Automatic annotation (TrEMBL):
Native source species: Actinopolymorpha cephalotaxi
Signal peptide location: none
Ligase listed as a keyword: no
Gene3D superfamilies: 3.40.50.20, Hexapeptide repeat proteins (2.160.10.10)
GO molecular-function terms, A-Z: acyltransferase activity
Stated name of the protein: Sugar O-acyltransferase (Sialic acid O-acetyltransferase NeuD family)
One Pfam family it belongs to: PglD_N
NCBIfam families: NeuD_NnaD
Active site feature: H128
Length: 200
């Protein structure tokens, strides 16, 4: 079998770090990235998306691109692989969906449900009973308290905090360093302490 890491950018390479740390060095790994096809990343071949023909993980931060690419590959009958760095902690009764990635020093507490193609970056915490819908993203250093719901495609930025029991709506984006004290409406960007809608 070959594992294809879709996206040869920063998160793709960090996902490869997690694969290496997990220690299965016998399995071939390739990157897939239409912009870098034919080149090499970390000494590994980079292929075009059309050439992916085995298990894959989409390691692209943008949730819309992640959803589109994973749907296309799954539509071709390919299987998404879940990658967990061995230095991440996954609590009892927590379930990770297919295609999700959890990097080093993430602490995902007990009884959480993570959907498909979720990305949990390094130095993050998720409290107990969190529910993360498909293609959600928790960026480095963010702290999500217990029983929070991140709806489909929501992102929590670096070093942000989301108070317990709140909902971050579908496609919403919590800016870096924000402290979220109220539910965040769908497709809204919030920043600051306390977090408020971001005037662009
Ligand atoms: C919230 C965010 C999406 C806004 O992006 P943007 O619309 O491109 O914002 P801009 O950089 O154009 O900044 C617009 C204004 O918002 C302010 N601003 C931007 N991000 C902010 C944040 N997180 N908190 C507070 N203010 C912020 C800027 O200072 C600027 O203010 P000014 O007009 O008074 O100078 C982005 O700044 C952010 O926080 N992204 C998350 C980054 C992250 O976590 N990266 C991790 C990578 S691994």
């Amino acid at each position: 079998m070959t594992l294809f890491i879709v996206g040869a950018g920063g998160f793709g390479r960090e996902t490869y770090d997690a694969v290496l740390a997990a220690g299965d060095s016998t399995e071939p790994v390739m990157f897939c990235d239409h912009a870098l096809a034919g080149e090499k990343t970390r000494g590994l071949p980079v292929v075009h998306p059309d050439e992916v023909d085995d298990d894959f993980v989409v390691a692209i931060s943008d949730p819309d691109a992640r959803a589109r690419l994973s749907a296309g590959l799954e539509g071709r009958g390919l299987t998404p692989r879940t990658i967990v760095h061995p230095r991440a902690v996954i609590g009892p009764e927590t379930v990770l969906g297919a295609g999700s990635v959890v990097l080093a020093m993430a602490y995902v507490s007990s009884s959480c449900v993570l959907g498909r193609h979720v990305q949990i970056s390094y130095n993050t915490t998720l409290g107990h009973d969190c529910r993360l819908s498909d293609v959600t993203t928790v960026l480095p250093g963010a702290n999500v308290a217990g029983s929070v719901h991140l709806a489909t495609g929501a992102t929590v930025g670096s070093n942000a905090f989301v108070r317990q029991g709140l909902t971050v709506g579908a496609g919403a984006f919590v800016g870096a360093g924000a402290v979220v004290t109220r539910d965040v409406a769908a497709r809204t960007v919030v920043v600051g302490v306390p977090a408020r809608p971001h005037a662009r």
